[in-house]
Design a protein that fits this description.
The longest helix is centred in the N-terminal third of the chain and has 23 residues. The protein has three domains: 54 residues; 168 residues, Spore Coat Polysaccharide Biosynthesis Protein SpsA, Chain A (Alpha-Beta Complex); 51 residues, no CATH class. The relative contact order is 0.12. Strands 2-1-3-6-5 form a five-stranded mixed sheet, sandwiched between helices. It has a two-stranded antiparallel sheet with strand order 4-7. The chain contains 14 helices and seven strands.
Length: 307
């Protein structure tokens, strides 16, 4: 546990918030999760203020172009990404990919390291920093999703996000999971990026893309793990609170089954009830205990049609 806190301390120190962290260091030292969460929210708030001061209403010159020309003729595409190829993905991701493909094969697009340039262009500085490891695969995924959505529109589905047909057939201009009051209070980035639907040429998505790319053009380090989320909020505020004007989609309930799987043995009937009634669920490839591993095995077999 102490190693975990030490690694988190190093992560936050890279954001330039070391004086604030030292001031609040007792929250780290007592080892209590609640105090760690308080500290995390305080650091997030400080980082968000820094990013907002630097990028809010920032004009990105016409000489800097981050746009990509369409390379394929696609209508309302579904985007699914596993850089190494789906055959090398964890079983949960394969099951999710096959589940969507069975009903939406004509819209499904698998993005891998080998197929990426068949769909879009990325700035050379992005590609160089990714290949050098400056940009991790996780944050390269953030970059790819915003470029795909800014270029084509469509629906981004994370490899561990299970989306209902209702959402896959959503055809309005924008939809993204958010935290709403009262849970939103104190949360400076109350938005998730594991499911995003955007209409073609959505101006909000284009602005988020430009902010994200402009950051990586200037810097060789990540100020915060949730950089994309900060820019999602900043762009919304620039555009008259854009995210407050879209159809609401909750980002807390989708985690319920994932969290229950860590503590309880889930029955076949309970799995079926969740999949029948929830439009959106978020899972993980990193089980924390044996019970969770066993639950994932049961769920995967159930989704594959096995007993």
């Amino acid at each position: 546990m102490k190693l975990k806190y030490f690694n988190k301390l190093l992560e936050y120190s890279k954001s330039g918030k070391l004086p604030l962290i030292l001031l609040l260091s007792p929250f780290f030292l007592d080892g209590k999760k609640k105090n760690l969460e308080i500290l995390r929210q305080k650091i997030n708030y400080s980082i968000h203020k820094t990013l907002k001061r630097k990028y809010m209403n920032k004009k990105i010159g016409n000489d800097v172009s981050f746009s990509s020309s369409k390379k394929k003729n696609l209508k309302n595409p579904i985007w699914f990404m596993w850089l190494q190829g789906i055959e090398d993905a964890p079983e949960l991701c394969k099951v999710n990919f096959n589940r969507i493909s069975r009903t939406h094969s004509e819209r499904m697009n698998l993005i891998t390291a080998d197929t990426l340039e068949e769909y879009l262009d990325l700035p050379e500085f992005i590609l160089k920093k990714w290949k050098k490891g400056i940009i991790t695969n996780t944050h390269f995924s953030d970059i790819v999703r915003v470029q795909l959505l800014a270029t084509y529109g469509g629906t981004w589905v994370d490899s561990t996000a299970f989306v209902s047909d209702t959402l896959l057939e959503f055809d309005e201009d924008f939809l993204i999971p958010q935290t709403f009051k009262p849970g939103r209070d104190g949360n400076v980035i109350p938005v998730s990026s594991w499911y995003i639907h955007a209409g073609e040429k959505n101006e909000y998505m284009i602005r988020v893309r430009d902010l994200l790319f402009y950051y990586w053009q200037k810097y060789d380090y990540l100020i915060d793990y949730f950089l994309l989320h900060h820019f999602l909020i900043i762009a919304s505020e620039e555009m008259q609170d854009y995210l407050d004007c879209i159809k609401p989609l909750d980002n807390t309930l989708p985690h319920l089954l994932m969290l229950r799987m860590r503590r309880y043995d889930i029955s076949k009937d309970e799995f079926l009830t969740y999949f029948k009634n929830l439009k959106l669920m978020k899972f993980t490839n990193k089980a924390q205990n044996e019970r969770e591993k066993n639950n994932y095995n049961k769920m995967i077999n159930l989704l594959k049609g096995e007993n």
